[in-house]
Specification:
single chain; alpha+beta; four-stranded antiparallel beta sheet; binds flavin-adenine dinucleotide
Length: about 400
């Protein structure tokens, strides 16, 4: 299957096609299957490489601040994540986190915050992180408890954040904390907290099945100037949801990239593995498996780029983005599992591409809203539409 075939779809413009072709050449040459044991160092290096090559310009908004355009182009984000994920999962991670970590600043930052951080993010000079989840507030994120008490012209942060990607290597964290203007989600504010500030500590580094920088953060009387608050007090939850709204479709695109790579690996193995006097691909059971994999991939791609295209037209895509994330992440898990099965014992050998993909896909079904959360969103949206 040609991984660029879908670029002919009407969701794209020629600028997307040219961009994707250029990125494909670069990624195949620069990052494909380059893996190191020190993920911190590799991640820093990837941010540098992605910045130097200009790809990170697509993660921030505003040409005046180093962005490729004045608004983040969802199709560019998705094409980048799909391509990078197909070649190297950590490269996709490094790219995505620059966008997610700085997204609140792009969307709601003051001119000073934008001028200070966005050009550095776009060049790869500063590493960004998004700190929303807490030990007791993951799916139910509006229950977060990390406190932000206003004292004069500062907010004083106390509490914990966990599962923070880039935790430990980030130059700044966008932190969401309870400032108490109103109950529940209307009493949360967002702040830029620079690494190294007094009162911010990396409480724990977390090892996961597909290693990447990840940490639990602890805030102890951490004084953040109010000039580093993003948006008005009490607006933080809205800012977080708007940021996730931009990036949720791109998680689907990353899953799509992983699935395409698994398909590529599975096809090559099926065509070359000899058994029972034939090749594995000669058997109808294999062909049925490949047919299911290919159909799952195309369904996920259609849902992903529909959501991206609609968002770029300025439409609300709550339902479409949730459908894309649900179908692409769950589908990719099935495709990767099927590809691994085609490899037999070789599929579970450490370092094999399918074994790596098998570990890499798993957390995409959990973060930025687990599958069950996407189901709830879709259910709520279709009921809302039916009652109109
Ligand atoms: C690798 C990784 C990277 C991450 N990076 C970040 C980051 O950079 N920043 C950040 O803020 N967070 C990050 N997260 C956190 C992530 O967003 C949370 O893990 C996620 O929101 C789920 O929260 P939880 O882990 O507390 O699970 P819980 O909220 O305890 O949920 C457990 C499970 O319950 C199920 N569930 C949830 N809601 C319902 C429901 N209504 N009905 C039935 N079942 C339900 C789902 O299957 C869910 O997986 C990351 C997580 C991982 C794994």
């Amino acid at each position: 299957m040609n991984p660029l075939e879908h670029l002919r779809w009407p969701f794209f413009e020629d600028r997307h096609r040219d961009f994707a072709a250029g990125l494909e050449t670069w990624a195949a040459r620069e990052v494909r299957d380059v893996h190191a044991s020190d993920v911190d160092a590799q991640c820093r290096g990837l941010v540098r490489q992605l910045g130097d090559a200009g790809w990170l310009r697509h993660t921030v908004a505003g040409t005046a601040h180093g962005g490729a355009a004045d608004a983040i182009d969802t199709r560019m984000l998705c094409l980048t994540r799909e391509t990078l994920a197909r070649h190297n999962g950590l490269a996709d991670f490094a790219f995505a986190m620059q966008g997610l970590g700085s997204g609140a600043i792009s969307l709601a930052g003051t001119p000073e915050q934008k001028a200070r951080w966005l050009p550095r993010v776009a060049r790869g000079d500063a590493i960004a992180a998004f700190a929303l989840s807490e030990p007791d507030a993951g799916s139910d994120v509006a229950a977060l408890q990390c406190a932000a008490r206003v004292e004069g012209d500062h907010a004083v942060l106390d509490g914990e954040k966990t599962w923070i990607s880039n935790g430990g290597i980030a130059d700044f964290y966008v932190v969401f904390a309870r400032s108490g203007e109103a109950p529940g989600s209307r009493g949360i504010s967002a702040f830029v907290v620079e690494a190294g500030m007094r009162g911010l500590a990396i409480a724990e580094r977390i090892d996961v099945i597909a290693p990447h920088p990840l940490a639990r953060l602890r805030f102890t009387s951490c004084r953040v100037p109010l000039s580093q608050r993003i948006g008005a007090g009490g607006e933080g939850f809205k800012v977080a949801m708007r940021t996730l709204d931009v990036f949720r479709t791109s998680v689907a695109a990353a899953a799509l990239g992983f699935a395409r790579r698994a398909m590529e690996e599975g096809l090559a193995r099926a065509a070359s593995r000899k058994m029972f006097g034939h090749t594995l691909a000669d058997f109808q059971l294999t062909q049925a498996r490949l047919a299911q994999m290919a159909t799952t991939i195309d369904s996920a791609a259609l849902l992903t780029y529909r959501a991206a295209w609609q968002r770029d037209q300025g439409e609300n895509v709550t339902r479409q983005a949730a459908m894309a994330k649900l179908a692409a992440t769950e589908g990719a898990q099935q495709v990767i599992d099927a590809a691994l099965q085609l490899f037999g014992g070789l599929g579970v050998v450490s370092g094999q591409p399918v074994e790596r993909l098998y570990r890499e896909i798993r957390s995409l079904r959990i973060y930025e809203g687990a599958t069950e959360v996407q189901q709830l969103i879709i259910g709520r949206e279709v009921l809302k539409e039916a009652s109109r």
